[in-house]
Amino acid sequence: MRRTQLYLDDELWDALHAQARREQTTISELVRRAARDRYVGNREERARAMKAIVGMWADRPEFSDPEAYVRKMRQDDRLERLRRS
User: Fold this and answer.
1) Cβ distance 6 to 31 under 8 Å?
2) Weakly modelled stretches of the chain, pLDDT under 70
3) Model pTM?
4) Is residue 5 assigned to a domain?
């Protein structure tokens, strides 16, 4: 664990202080928990969300041949435009 210093305005300090008192914990713990929830998130929840999207476009006809779809998306005249420059 690393130590850091934060500057909090009075309104935020008061809110954290009151919440820490209600939960019988420290302001530091509340800040760590909030930062973890916001920036790390619940790994199990993220894993469920990722599994839920797997195959969601499987029934779309344009994806029946993925190689053809990618080739079509990559077709452009970029090389032709570069040659003209």
Assistant:
1) yes
2) none
3) 0.52
4) no
